[in-house]
Amino acid sequence: MSVRVRYAPSPTGNQHIGGVRTALINYLFAKSQGGSFILRLEDTDRTRYSEEYVQNLYDTFKWLGFYWDEGPDIGGPVGPYVQSERLDLYKKYAEDLVRMGKAYYCFCDSERLEKIRQEQIAAKKDEIGYDRHCRYLPKEELERNIAEGKPYVVRLKIPLEGVTVFHDRLLGTIEWKNEDISPDPVLLKSDGFPTYHLANVIDDHLMGITHVMRAQEWIPSAPLHKIMYDAFGWEMPELCHLPMVLGQDGHKLSKRHGATAVNEFRKAGYLPQALINYIALLGCSYEDGRDIYSLDELVSLFKIERLNKSPAVFDYQKLEWFNGQYIRQTSDSDLAALVRPYLVDAGLRKAQDPDMDRLELAAMPLVKERLKFLSDAPVIMSYLYKRLELPSVETFLPKKADAKETAGFLEESKKLLSEYGLDDIPAVEEKFRSRAAEIGRKLGDLLMPLRVAITYTRVSPPLFESMKILGLKECIERIDEAIRYLRGY
């Protein structure tokens, strides 16, 4: 039997970390077994549906770098892969259940349903739900309602007694009392659209899904689905409910913990490889002593048995560490291309500028170690593109030195640079070291104000390498500007 798994999001919002993790685990399992990974759009919630969210779905996974084998945008043998294009199928199978005595027509209107709900609340009942009124309608009343064209929904007959048993690959055998299942849930709505439960079961069966891997929050729907599979006489796919992802406060990961939508991580400057690597480790182990895995390595190592039963905690600091690791593994040319959009957005350069392309390629070895996110580049590299506002005088001053003395240090630096240039950086660094000793100062007393004059900050990428990129003329002009500034203080 060939493994077939699916990711079936509802396009009612942007893709978020929890959904991507579910998709990734399905993908890793399918590929580790030589199987197929399928995308199905569950778009029956038409009030919140948006084409914008569909496009976000496609864009997200193209950026992440793993994709489905079958889906709405690429087709496949068991389409259509969009539920709103499968309405006739759902109606047919809902009617089949009615004919088999496993479901029934319900004519209760919204007013009656609300009245029941309020009465149950007033009576402080533990379970709020349908009272099964139409399950027992006399045949004559049922036929009259249909003949009159009275609107109806189709409800599933939940067994009134006993238990429903199903197996979970991760959690083992689970028993669910039928009396605890939502009483006779709606399968087909009066507008012809299915509910999640009907569409889910029919689509998984017709698409040949062999394994359903989804978050543990969906466990309560499993007994209901098992009842439906049994009613149709179909074999239920093997279930595997994945551990939840929590924030560090122990609650389900949400916006209050920080970014959760994938496009937020993308805008913040995360690399897709870092996100995939970290998400794959949430609630799953691979090999001891390793953290960094390529997507192919994750596929080759993945086993359901490596999944944990307990919830995983999303650690933003750990993800930040992963991002830094992947940034440092990126080639200088690729990294320059990755940071370029952030530099353009910051107004530091035009989208097309070969001179700036060369500057950035030269700068990448200097800034790579300092980048936690791609979005850090404009702040770290801004001094390479333009002169900035000079910082406070205090920023320039070495310990126990005033503005006048510091201006003198800059004069010393200017003389050395004018005499020796920037072609041989180790040699000019040695000249600075010798000159500092000659005037009885520490090397840092010369270099600190020089660094601030050139980069406008006390902490920057390597100083002399930065100066070489800027060119001697620009560096001398910046030094002169800083000297005038300090002497005018």
Question: Which characteristics define this entry?
Answer:
489 residues, mainly alpha, Rossmann fold, Arc Repressor Mutant, subunit A, 3-stranded antiparallel sheet, two-stranded parallel sheet, 11 strands, 47% helix, elongated
Structure description:
The chain has 20 helices and eleven strands. 47% of the residues lie in helices and 9% in strands. The mean pLDDT is 95. Among the domains are: 85-242, HUPs (Rossmann fold), CATH 3.40.50; 393-488, Arc Repressor Mutant, subunit A (Orthogonal Bundle), CATH 1.10.10.350. The longest helix is centred in the C-terminal third of the chain and has 18 residues, at 403-420. With 489 residues, the chain is mainly alpha-helical. The protein has a three-stranded antiparallel β-sheet with strand order 3-4-7. Strands 1-2 form a two-stranded parallel sheet. Helix 16 runs antiparallel to helix 20 and helix 17 packs across helix 18.
